[in-house]
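User:
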Amino acid sequence: MDYQYDDIAKMIDHALLVPSLTDRELEEGCQLALEFDVASVCIMPYYTARCAEILKGSTVLPSTTIGFPHGGHSAPTKLMEAKRAIEDGCQELDMVVNISQVRSGRWSEVEQEIGSVVEAAHSADRKVKVIFENCYLTDEEKIRLCQICGEVNADWVKTSTGFGSGGATFEDLRLMRHHTPQHVQVKAAGGIRDMDALLEARAIGVTRIGSSRTSEILNDCRQRLGLELLGDPATDTASGY
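Assistant: Predicted structure:
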């Protein structure tokens, strides 16, 4: 095998984004992420400060969403959300583009909005993942977004929110990796549900996935590597991913 456990665990953003999740379920989700030592916990914005507190001192990063899930917030609102997330201790911001503006060809506004959030994040030494919601876009629109994200130095391009009409496809992942500069990484969300799919995405060049099936995927990984299993799959919390 061409991977170790940490290589796979540090590809996963454990997603806790369903609006009906309780405080207890969010707390348990953060603890699960710590046990499996994933890349980050992607949490609902209101819980970001508590998430950062729980994860403090670990290698698991607190992350949250901006303009989620529909992307239709005004640009100043997204920027305000980003600044508040940073104040609350967020290390990585997953921002939804303005899908309507993308589909309307209003590329100047789209670039300004993404660029303003990236600038605010980078000035605070934070990172940004830009969510396209590919299920609503043409290939030409996806390609233009990849180019824009390269121009404004976003850290990742990301397929989906997990709440649209479709999620990540391998076809889209190949397109995004091909049309995005190498300094921008690719994240898959909504559709990477098992270890084999994760490995296929990894082979394309994907460096992160969003998932609520963390224990299922990572215990499969551990089993393949001959490691002791962790946690309880029943404690994975559905996220839409």
